[in-house]
User: Fold these one by one.
Assistant:
Number 1:
Amino acid sequence: IVLSGPGAFSVEIGGRTETEAKWIGTFDTIGLVLLLLVAYRSWKIPVLGVLPLASAGLAGLGAVALLFDGVHGITVAFGFTLIGVVQDYPIHLFSHQRPGVTPRENARALWPTLATGVVATCIAYLTFLFSGVDGLRQLAVFTIVALATAALCTRWLLPALVDPAPRDVAASPRLLALWRRIERLPRPRIALAVVALAALAVVALRPGAFWENDLSRLTPVPAPLLERDAQLRAELGAPDVRYVLTLQAADAEAALVASEALRPTLDALVADGAIDGYDLAARYLPSVARQRARQRALPAPDALRAALDAAVVRSPFRPDAFEPFLEDVERARQAPPLRPGDLAGTPLAPRVGALLLEGEGHATALVSLTGLRDVAAVERAARAHGARLLDMKQASESLVADYRARILAALALAALALSATVWFALRALRRVLRVLLPMALTTLLVLAVLRGFGIELNLFHLVSLILAAGLGLDYALFFEHAGEDRDDQLRTLHAVLVCSAMTLLVFSLLALSSVPVLRAIGGTVALGVVFNFVLALLVARAPLGEYDADPEAAA
């Protein structure tokens, strides 16, 4: 027995996804717990570290459920990816904790920098509210509420649970040795410009399609299974899954009438070999006019009885043997016509419901096609009768392109809003550039790497780039906040090392997944973490003597 089709695929994908989720989740959990234990030497830190993220997720889902009719699956999937940056908030609190400073005082000192990053990101996501796409609006509400909740939790609730630090990470000789090596690194200027130009050249000049619009390329179903499914469909004469005829009408009755008018043309296409067959709702549920015509074709009771009596006389049947038949015919002749609603609860309901779609003030009749060979002939015939041959592949690609265009427009406005917020917080061009440059250059480098390997970008890459940008803003802001204070620089380095190691572990494992969506998100964010960390070290840390020479910056 060979099993195929959506049901078999869902079982295959579900089993594979569950297996991968288990091993990825197990390795993630073990790795993160060990990392936090080594970094902070306290069993409470792994427990406390998840509280802001858990609070953020619950608050975001609650806000979406309150403001919208339902929560889209894309909101849950993309939303929890985008708020991954909140795991960095408690890490900064833990790493900056030191003897002589209470957790509340520590949180108060970190709050301006933390709030700047959160406000900038939330203002950027506000642009998604005006995208005109319900999914993006839900994503904006979820992300904004979640980020704000995590930040407030880190600022006011988490310090009450954190024990006073018995030691200062700034006292670590290894961390000090590492920072001294970093300080000896040159300040790249021309090199960064050359790298940026090279990355831009790769992005612009690399041959091949830039965007991936074909949703079938994202399926985790192995190619051999898809090929076998296509072969079985061809042998069984199953309907074509790509092309379908559509008829628009004012209501269901008009759609059925139009379908019936199209049947002679469809029969001619079958006879000419353009298609092997077709299926439509009117085959199971004729129009009212057709039903009435068939009722009128039934003989009247007297005529039917006379004809039946004449036939029974020459047969061995009793004279009253066909009385139930006479009653059934009369009942059918007088019965009211069937409507789509009358099929509810019957085996015909799913079939008719799939081919006759009723909306508010309109209805659409679908005609499924089998063995489509001549697309042009079918399209001409459909157009001549007011129908339309719909290419599902082309339609899905158009939807993807439209959705992507809205996301890109929202991202452009978000970048402006984020830059304005950082400028308002820092008020110095040099400091603003040090914060924004690593994030912008990282985005360009990630795009260049993906394009260099011939990877066509999809919506999941875009969402991952947004997350990577949020991480880069966080790293750069805290390096800039440390200024020239050696101890603060060491604490910030410790925090960013832990944050980047945690994020890199999670998304590197996702990049190893066989599921294309998870692989796209994991690979993109992992690249972003590496580039953001390196560039933040090279660009965002304060040059020696700047704060002595610039009192406004020091303030």
Note: The first strand starts at residue 243 and ends at 249.
Number 2:
Amino acid sequence: MSCRQQTPTLASGTVEDIAAEMGIDAAEIASRKAFLELTEADAVHLRNIRGKLAAAQNGFADGFYEYLRQLPELAALLPDEATVARLKAAHGRYFASLTEGDYGDAYVDGRLRVGMTHARIGLTPKWYVGAFRKYLSDMLKATWVASGEEFAAFAPTFDALLKVVMLDLGLTLDTYIHADKRAIALRDRAIESSVNGIFIAAAAPDDCRLIYINAAFSQIIGTPRDEVLGQPCLCTGDDDGFAVIRGAIAEGRDGYTTLSRQRADGSQQWIELFLSPVRGDGDSVSHYVGVLNDVTARKEAEGQLAFLANHDSLTNLPNRSLFDDRLHQALARADRGNGFAVCFIDLDRFKLINDSLGHAAGDAVLIAVARRLGGLCRGADTLARLAGDEFVMLIEDIGDAGAAAGIAQRILAALAQPVHVGGRDIDVAASLGMALHPDDGNDTASLLRNADAAMYAAKAAGRNTFRFYGEAMNRRASQRLALESDLRRAVARRQLELFYQPQIRSADGRLAGVEALL
């Protein structure tokens, strides 16, 4: 009886590959047969009784599968008569090979294939061993009858049957064990190849020291594996995120946090950490398994999105949304006696720059203006770009109009110097409107509206100057708005009539012009 001699290769799932991985070669089979004392004499005993056992085979198979279908776990694998019939046919082939007396390569391949099939369909070893027990128990009586009920003939024959069945059982169980090893090896390779950092930490002592990390963990942390093993599992830092993990460990539950740490080069790194307890006997936590990911790029992207949502993309100054928030905060602080001013800044004749030099030059001017205005801001002040050439400055902790006027004059002085763009100097000027809290408003809308009204008063005064908001100014603005509304309604209702009145020079009576009257 010869068996293959093959060098182990990478598993491809074939019987030959599995046998090679398991080291099932001619020498191994010979060793197993020798230990079981399975010799040619045993083969002769089984061949001699083969015909007599074959007569009882059909009834034996019927009873065997009827017994198996009584067990719920096995009945699920035998759902219909077609499946049972197919298995009975396979059973018949096995029964024939069992007593054929040839236990060489083909026989060994068949047993390994059965083990692979059972492992694949989920027939666990306990059921396989139990079925074999039932099989041998039923064959005991059949062999006794086939031996003429003479112990001298029965004993060596049944012993030979036991040797072959034990060889079969050993080969089949080896495939189960090997399948588990392959699954564990695959899992280990998957964990080691994962782009996520994976670690296992002992539950004791309290700092949960690392006993395993994969390559990605070492890469994310930036520390060699041998320097990380035995160290605490990222739960002993001062960051609030570490406290979250320590709380999860103390309570023996899942934990999740995002940690901020400093890399060796001084740059900031953000790490997302998941932690879960592994429970052993008595439901006690024996280990923790964790997964960590470097989410620095995501955090930076989120930060950039948050910045863009609250800042002007051209000048990087706060936008209207962020300025409103800062103004709300200033109003809350003002309740404790902190005064402030809102300064509305609008560049004079900026449209002329865009129209004559192009928008690129206009953008360069806006950036330069933002830089100059920003240089005047103190730590608590906020400078924002509202739209176009409109800026607004929140000036905190200001005592009176005199101090506000001093700041307005510094703004005008900062803008007095030309802006150098594209090889030429561009003169820039601005009109400023100042609204003081609480005299000129107690909410964001009224303060901005009144500062804007004061800015228009500065433009009406000749530009390149500043004006404070006053109630008289508000009355004039309201009157002008009412007049404009009345005129629009009058036009819509055709209530206006146009007359032309000649203008005559008194010296010579000649026509000097025409006056239009509405």
Note: The mean pLDDT is 86.
Number 3:
Amino acid sequence: MEKWYIKNRKGDYKGISKRFKISELLAKLLVNRGITDYSSIDYFLNPNLDRLHNPSLMKDLNVGADIIKSKILSKKKIRIVGDFDVDGVMAIYVLYTGIKKCGGLVDYVIPDRVNEGYGINNQIVEQAKDDGIDTIITCDNGIAAIEQVELAKKIGLTVIITDHHDIPFMIDEITGEKKVLYTKADAVINPKQEDCKYPFKYLCGAAVAYKLVERLYSIFSLQQTLAHPLLEYVAIATICDVVDLIDENRIIVKEGLELLNNTKNIGLRALIKETGIENKKISVYHVGFIIGPSINASGRLDTAIRSLELLLSKDEEEANSIAKELKELNDERKKITEDGVEKIVNTIESSNLINDKVLVVYEPSINESVAGIIAGRVKEKYYRPTIVLTQGKEGVKGSGRSIEEYNLFEELSKCKGLLKKFGGHPMAAGLSLEEDNVSLLRRSLNDFTILSQDDLIPKTYIDMQLPMDFINFKLIDELKLLEPFGKGNEKPIFGEKNLKISRGFALGANRNALKLILSNKKGISMEGLIFGDVRDFERKVSEMYGNDELQKLYRGVNNNIEMDILYYPSINEYNGNTNLQLIIQSYRFSK
């Protein structure tokens, strides 16, 4: 059962309201997000491009840019090595476009997800040498490529790492202390390095690449405004890589979405049309759940090169063809994912895995390209860190997704001896290991976890109780000042208690939405929408109040059902009519 908590952060709501000419309600929402000093509030409410940080503050960025400049001027061949996810594809596009703009001889490669796995490998390094490449630049990978960089240097290649992943480390078996592992690259550009003075540490890989391009344009005397159109691609990567939408990321996404809604990219226009969102205002939702997964699908089921070719396409017919291909791949990916989730859930429910605090599930038939998505879905169902493993071409491979209370990357680091390879973030990781070590990994992660039972209960933090009396069009308009919403800047959550339900309507051919007419004790009524499993709602009503009360609800007859809800207010526009409505995110019955 989910636990609800009301945030109760103290702040000078009146002072903030007066200083920034906003309501006290909005001032409280800012304070709830830890945005309390006037400078931070001003930065948050006015996310302008001139507030992006100076790229030269990032460790080795100037060094890397100077190396690239010398390679461009001396006509040396440069190869970009990217990743197969959205962030990787966008990072390649940004870096490739930027270097080409400066006159560089540059190409790119992306490892095959299934045959090669994540990141630069020895074969890519050796092939670069055979192809006469002088310099390798990684993007969205490379920080953990100790062996591969060593090989590249040994055979005479210049290597520049651009990455944003956590810095790898090992635990000293005697002292128990962390020992950071460094590559011997000619430049290592990653804001997460301990001695990096860059003020913001949570950029995605494409954003790090963008910072390098900004500096390149500067030293080639190109106008900085020429780099700004690339923010469209950086915004897509930022949203899809689920980094916090605060500080610079907030500026990037806000500006990028404006560019995306007026995109001149032939490939993106084709994809937007193919996925049915051509005449809609594209938001974080559309990028994260429609555009991003379509781009990702090529790297999962085919080759990520196809998505990059879509972005680079100059021919409408070609772009339309690739967009259709990506849409079909994503539809196929959805089906494979659904089947995989069902298999993993059945395995958990029919075994003693259900008692584990950290779920490690090995299912050889799972398509490894969707293991991470499945892990995320299973994690949401059970609210436990989840690792889904399958049989790869060279042993067991898989992906993990975590909860806020559990740093998956660090916990896997403690089990490094059981793994062949791993990398990632606190909330997500990829790994490979021998089949004999699967049960040992499961046992180790569970034996040594410090997760408590309370950690495994989902928690929702409510901004405030807000009766329906206070909801109006002006409030909803003001809430737009907090956009774009996403990780680190979630939509505000409001609560209301003891609401009566006058009537209910199941919506959609698949009954995947429920409209409720709600009223409070003052007699104020408003529509509430629940998206998801209508049958689950019906089951809960029947269990608590009886089926007769459920039928009364659907007939619009007076009933005894009362609800507490968590919601976000919105505006519904239909057939020329505009009315207020509540998007219900969670609910419980008051009886």
Note: The first helix runs from residue 13 to 20.
